[in-house]
Amino acid sequence: xxxxxxxxxxxxxxxxxxxxxxxxxxxxxxxxxxxxxxxxxxxxxxxxxxxxxxxxxxxxxxxxxxxxxxxxxxxxxxxxxxxxxxxxxxxxxxxxxxxxxxxxxxxxxxxxxxxxxxxxxxxxxxxxxxxxxxxxxxxxxxxxxxxxxxxxxxxxxxxxxxxxxxxxxxxxxxxxxxxxxxxxxxxxxxxxxxxxxxxxxxxxxxxxxxxxxxxxxxxxxxxxxxxxxxxxxxxxxxxxxxxxxxxxxxxxxxxxxxxxxxxxxxxxxxxxxxxxxxxxxxxxxxxxxxxxxxxxxxxxxxxxxxxxxxxxxxxxxxxxxxxxxxxxxxxxxxxxxxxxxxxxxxxxxxxxxxxxxxxxxxxxxxxxxxxxxxxxxxxxxxxxxxxxxxxxxxxxxxxxxxxxxxxxxxxxxxxxxxxxxxxxxxxxxxxxxxxxxxxxxxxxxxxxxxxxxxxxxxxxxxxxxxxxxxxxxxxxxxxxxxxxxxxxxxxxxxxxxxxxxxxxxxxxxxxxxxxxxxxxxxxxxxxxxxxxxxxxxxxxxxxxxxxxxxxxxxxxxxxxxxxxxxxxxxxxxxxxxxxx
Length: 580
Description:
Elements: H1 4-10, H2 20-23, E1 30-32, H3 37-41, E2 48-51, E3 57-61, H4 63-71, E4 89-93, E5 110-114, E6 120-124, H5 126-139, H6 144-156, E7 160-165, E8 170-173, H7 175-181, H8 185-188, H9 202-208, E9 212-219, E10 222-233, E11 236-244, H10 250-258, H11 289-302, E12 308-311, H12 318-328, E13 336-340, H13 346-359, E14 364-368, H14 375-387, E15 401-406, H15 410-415, H16 421-427, E16 430-433, H17 444-459, E17 465-466, H18 468-476, H19 482-496, E18 501-502, H20 540-550, H21 555-562, H22 566-575
Parallel strand pairs: 1-2, 4-5, 12-15, 12-16, 13-14, 14-15, 17-18
Antiparallel strand pairs: 2-3, 5-6, 7-8, 7-11, 9-10, 10-11
Pfam family, one: Sigma54_activ_2
GO biological process, one term: regulation of DNA-templated transcription
Keywords: ATP-binding, Nucleotide-binding, Transcription, Transcription regulation
């Protein structure tokens, strides 16, 4: 029987796109091997990576580890290395490709990805592979190769996976989901998803076009974690994929209680989390090919000490990339200092710059707006980079990694003759150019969902969502301020709008273009939510009334013609005071 990965290889994705370093997740929690079991449990994580003082892999602490500890009566004060497990786990290099992992009959539970000196960089699981493939599907659903990949996922993935069409009817339902719900696949296909999966919102994902990742859904009395991902094609949501991931950490809590550790106070004095209050590459949201490639290059750059030159329009996320590179580098535990070269007058900028260089010794210095440095400061910075000292303000050897950023393009920078070409060549050994948001439209729905959830949580307001008309309008918007403008716009709309669903009119202050109008051919079943606005003076209320007349008052048929769920139609009938 062919394995999951063997089938992937047959799809001829190419060696470059199958590199382990590109598919791994860098979001994980690790602790030192000397950390006590008690301290590790306080982190309340389902999986914890145990490393030695050189950050090399020792093992993992998971449910099985805790069961062993309980059965063997291991004290909670014992070091976590005593229960770290390695069974079902394999360490691999980041430059390996998925085809090179095919020496096992089935995919190992967990691959731990290491760099050339053995430091843990990330994790690779079957779930990770599935999530990345779905991101590829988001880019092009109708590509034959992508459809073949989806078939592999449905056949082999251990997660529950369901796919609905634009009307919310199940078109795929894998064996894992079938086993969990008790509904045979052949009985599930063709039925509306609400009739098969309890408490699902997958049909609403199609209507709204907004992805939801890591949300909790109660199914058969259990809190499950699910992803819901819309598939856009030619400006329209044509399907949605739902993934049932795992039950959560409830079992860890039960074992924790069995060990009777819940009343023990924390005595740990060192920081255990690998994450700091700054961005990681995983937090840079996007599914586009451009973002995928930039993250790949950033990960490679992070392994070295060479300077990195980031270019891109204002608001594209240059600082986030700088922080992400620092987080993945060997300097992750040292300081990260940001210095904006525009913040000081020309006569003071040199003094402040070299003061920050000294403060960043051993760590990373991020220089924003490097293009405005005065000529004399450019010369002294170049001298410092070549010698490591020599400036009158820096009289000792300093080890600092520079990441610089400019909103000016390289051509403009060099043609202006105001920036030293030698300095540019020294700073741009690695050059990453971040594209504007308007050039990666496919990332916009993902960004909207991500920041809507984040900002609603920040402001402690009920989570809001957008209609698919709004998502489409925002995908067509130019976003001159890029991701920063998008975030600010979301923050404004959640502040000003009292409704949980954001309509196009709520964004009139942003969207100055005329709203897309409807076709008058309402007899066609292709009428859907994207065509739900005015055409030749006919508004939404009149359209609903017209369709109700044509269907003889049949609400189910009317909802089908509109491409919405019956429940949504009822809400609109009430909203427009339509007696039907």
